[in-house]
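Review form for a predicted model. The reviewer records the input and the model, then writes brief findings.
Reviewer: anonymous (R2)
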Amino acid sequence: MKLSQDLLRAEAARRVRVARPDLAADLDLSTAAALSRVHARIQESVDTDTDALLAVSVVRRFELAEWTRATCEFAIGLAPERLAAWRRSFSRTIFLAGNPDNLGDRVRFDHIAEDGSAAWTGPAPAGASAGLRRLLKLFDGSRSLPARPDTAVRIPEAIGPRHRPPVRRELYVATAGTSVADCLVHLNHLLVEAVLDGLIAPGDTLVVRQVPRLVGLSGPYAALRVGAEREHPDRLRAYACLTEETLVVGTG
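Model under review:
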């Protein structure tokens, strides 16, 4: 399954239709330029919607494998109806720089990474996190994503109910021209929505693999994160993907 522009457009359009069918019904989703206009319209709608939900992540340091695990744990720990409502706001998340340990008296986090490297609050209406967003600066993720060896990340079983046998998937992350900030945004959307779709669950294993681009992968894909090319905004690019599963045997 080649990652053609047609396939990428279809995936980007599918995401819009799933998250906001009310806004997608009469919109042109047939080209990259049209999709950009749609996203701008939806962003405007979300920004002015007092019911729109926003999550905030306070990031002390970024390490890809640990951040992947903690993001999945955060999403799995949310009530299904809250997670579904967040999707209507396209799983919007703001990343702030700070040490969660220093905010314990002022912020009640919904999830803290085991190593203390990041913490999450929300999703909630934007007013709920206004004080925190005034207190801290945006996380500076302008540097390039550092190279890392393939790493297996296991989602703990104890964090939620398991409705199927655990599976193993490959999580590919494109690194060419990708900053840490880009990675945070793209993976946040991919992982949160994969949890909502049941693609990631307690007990699963994700093998995180960094590659320059995803064009050489043959698929099949369980989920794709698609966005505009930075240098060519009229073209789409796959920034991350989850492969189809293989059954993990020998687990309890």
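Findings: Helices lie at 5-19, 21-24, 32-48, 64-76, 80-88, 130-135, 180-196.
Further findings: The radius of gyration is 18 Å.
Recommendation: see findings above.
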